[in-house]
Amino acid sequence: MSPNGKSEVILLVDDDPDDLQMMRRALEKNGFSGEIYSVGDGEEMLEFLRRTGRFAPPKLSPTPALILLDLNMPKMDGREALAEIKSDKSLHRIPVVVMTTSSAERDILQAYDLGSNSFITKPITLNELIEVTRALGQYWFRVVKLPKVAVH
């Protein structure tokens, strides 16, 4: 997935350990050679991105090239977290793909209104997830030109 030889970073934001494990497996099956980090809710995500709390050392929180964000989580849900990212001048350029079990039109509209770059309903099987992550990797790491996000 990283054709130019540089190590890409993906941040997974989901409170379900099984979903996180499946996502890691799917990315690895597609040959993703970058780093995969994960957090369990929006508050942790913001700590990671802003390098505060336990994520203060930069080695523990590299700036992601892509965030895969679940909507339904405890503490701060994905909607609130997305609004925070997109309103923060130092974070707003990081692409955020909402990946959630919902396919409700109101969730899709709200995600895009809040600044999501894409909305994907989570596949149910590992094989379907492998196909979705293959397409994600092709698009986000081979097709589009992403801005260099300044490391803060």
Structural write-up:
This protein is α/β, with parallel strands linked by helices. It has one domain: Rossmann fold. Helix content is 39%, strand content 15%. The chain contains five helices and five strands. It has a five-stranded parallel beta sheet, sandwiched between helices. Helix 1 (17-29) crosses helix 5 (126-143) and helix 2 runs parallel beside helix 3. It is globular, with a radius of gyration of 14 Å. It starts with 8 loop residues before the first strand and ends in a 9-residue tail after the last helix.
Q: Which band does the percent of strand residues land in?
A: 15-25%
Number of helices: 5
**Overall morphology:** globular
Q: How do the helices and strands follow one another from N- to C-terminus?
A: EHEHEHEHEH
Count up the domains. Answer: 1
User: What is the CA-based Rg, rounded?
Assistant: 14 Å
What structural class do you assign from the helix and strand content? alpha/beta
pLDDT averaged residue by residue: 89
Distance between the termini: 25 Å
Total beta-strand segments = 5
Identify the CATH class. Alpha Beta
> Taking strands numbered 1, 2, ... along the chain, how are they ordered across the largest sheet?
2-1-3-4-5
- Superfamily (CATH H level) name: Response regulator
| Biggest sheet features | 5 strands, parallel
Enter the CATH topology name.
Rossmann fold
- List unreliable stretches of 5+ residues: 1-5
The proportion of residues forming helix, as a percent range, comes to 25-40%
CATH architecture: 3-Layer(aba) Sandwich
